[in-house]
Amino acid sequence: MVDTKDFINLERSLSNPFGNFSDGSAIDDDFSAQNSVSIDKKLLIDLQHLSIGHVISEGPYSVVYEGLYKSMPVAIKIIQPDMSANVSPERKVKFQREVTLLSKVKHENIVKFIGASTEPTLMLVTELMRGGTLQKFLWSTRPQCPDLKLSLSFALGISRAMEYLHAIGIIHRDLKPSNLLLTEDKTIIKLADFGLAREDAEAEMTTEAGTYRWMAPE
């Protein structure tokens, strides 16, 4: 178990974009105003109980940190962390959609939603999956293939998550190894990243979305 004090000390030493969570003084007022996103207050977290640790992963539009929320290990996804640039309307829409949809789903093979924040920056907090992504796991086992029993277990877990989403009218639209996370013992797989997801499975999808290498050929 990670000590909360260690996270607080590490947070202060990191060159992160927001400084102390409970302060917010490092954030420009103009940015906060432009960054307003409408999210149900019941889904918002109390930043005074949130501490940040080291970086887990980093992409062009977000950075994911390990952290603690009320002594619970969590993953903290910061959207477009560069405070010198305004968050685009498109990123705001994707963030709001991801928070809304993820807060609605409850399944053993879908990453658990903890909460979100819109100030001082857009932030999504979920359960921490210490096993990393399926993509990293597959690369680590090369050139050998993963155990057949484990592979079948993963396939069933993914199928159950997708079946559940479709049953409640949600289409994920970005299923790929980097959006599938593993528990620390690498026995359970969970679906993550709902930024491209859509509600209403009966509606006709006219916009192409997803990651090119993992999209269906049709």
UniProtKB/TrEMBL annotation:
Record InterPro entries: Kinase-like_dom_sf (IPR011009), Prot_kinase_dom (IPR000719), Ser-Thr/Tyr_kinase_cat_dom (IPR001245), Ser/Thr_kinase_AS (IPR008271), Ser/Thr_Kinases-Pseudokinases (IPR051681)
SMART domains reported for this sequence: S_TKc
Reaction catalyzed: L-threonyl-[protein] + ATP = O-phospho-L-threonyl-[protein] + ADP + H(+); L-seryl-[protein] + ATP = O-phospho-L-seryl-[protein] + ADP + H(+)
Keyword Transferase: yes
One Pfam family matching this protein: PK_Tyr_Ser-Thr
Lineage top rank: taxon: Eukaryota
Gene3D superfamilies for this protein: Phosphorylase Kinase, domain 1, Transferase(Phosphotransferase) domain 1
Domain Protein kinase: start-end pairs: 50-218
Gene Ontology terms for molecular function: ATP binding; protein serine/threonine kinase activity
Protein's UniProt keywords contain DNA damage: no
Keywords of the record: ATP-binding, Kinase, Nucleotide-binding, Transferase
Protein name: Putative ovule protein
Organism: Solanum chacoense (Chaco potato)
